């Protein structure tokens, strides 16, 4: 396959960026999107140019490191991560636009790499449980109803890649934050911090400069892990409950 | 608690949802009353007088109406201020646009902000036209809605402003009602279809219902 790539190039956080056009040839349809970028970078290095910086780690679709907005879609045209996207999703001769996640809370570090530490700070605000550490407890010691376990697991699938923020026209982190809150709030292990978790994490989300939710549903459409839009509804419910409880105290 | 709600994006959306539902409930009652225009002059003009005396002898003449107005003003202001502040925040949260643009979301969703502005301007005109009579074409008569309605919808601009605003209202309710349910945490997977259907039915009924009035005047059904 022969492709024309238009890639966002930006020297550093302070520099202005622009789209640069590159041609790549000999791309196999079985290559992943990141392997295709590796080919481009080899080409750039050989010609003495600066390679394109992009985030990647496991390349198995489970770590949440890879990003990229491909032709206007976070993680590209398939519902998966960029590393699991294959070149067979494109046609020979295509022009592909590759841009970084765009949000005020995700500043560009270089080229296609953005700083997602805002997500880490949201997790630090309450995305954990205060449980005794040590070896894993006996699974039957704390019974969890099947429906709750399924609900928790569905939200625990979030890998924190930030595609929801990238896709949201408001740069909102509602889907990420709600997935993390719901995952723990429904379980008995998360119950002691049920109220403080939702209040603190939402407050941190706002403090990071993410936008608000207008329920466009773009986040859930872009999510490679299929976190449902209703996740936000559940978080709103938890937030209202916690606010009422805090007022009574 | 008020501080927590107002300072949070989730809380401010709650303010929007609650004020939106209050305005929606008012609109349903408002439409119901307005449709009396099709039963003739006597019926709707009597209804207008009844409204002014509603709640008597407990309430003084016009008190119920002023109470309703007070609630509505608070709702409109709360809704608009929250919308403005949240929109500003949303725009700041996405300072640079994507080079590769794609059409996003449904038409109703994309037009919430401008649709809201149109509705706000419409409300100002509507009050000046049919409540205070300031910009009313022809002689405005208090407590004579039938004559006033005929006056307004006998002008081309009255019809245009009204019909455009009612179409904007339908779109606004279509996305707004369902969104309010999500914001208030009452949405769920099992209820989603019912909520979307209710939003569509409400939007359609209110738009068609209100538009039927200028159409009635234009076709001579109301004259």
UniProtKB/TrEMBL annotation, chain A:
What are the protein's UniProt keywords?
Iron, Iron-sulfur, Metal-binding
Classification via PROSITE patterns: 2FE2S_FER_1, 2FE2S_FER_2, 4FE4S_FER_1, 4FE4S_FER_2
Asked if the record carries the keyword Cell division, the reply is: no
GO-annotated biological processes:
aerobic respiration; respiratory electron transport chain
Residue ranges of domain 4Fe-4S ferredoxin-type in the record: 149-178
Give GO terms: molecular function aspect only: 2 iron, 2 sulfur cluster binding; electron transfer activity; metal ion binding
List the InterPro entries hit by this protein, alphabetically: 2Fe-2S_ferredoxin-like_sf, 2Fe-2S_ferredoxin-type, 2Fe2S_fd_BS, 4Fe4S_Fe-S-bd, 4Fe4S_Fe_S_CS, Beta-grasp_dom_sf, Helical_ferredxn, SDH/FRD_Iron-Sulfur
**Names of the cofactor(s):** [2Fe-2S] cluster; [3Fe-4S] cluster
Indicate the segments forming the 2Fe-2S ferredoxin-type domain, all copies. Answer: 1-102
Q: Which family does it belong to?
A: Belongs to the succinate dehydrogenase/fumarate reductase iron-sulfur protein family.
Q: Which PANTHER family match?
A: SUCCINATE DEHYDROGENASE, SUCCINATE DEHYDROGENASE IRON-SULFUR PROTEIN
Q: What is this protein called?
A: Succinate dehydrogenase
Organism (species): Streptomyces spiralis
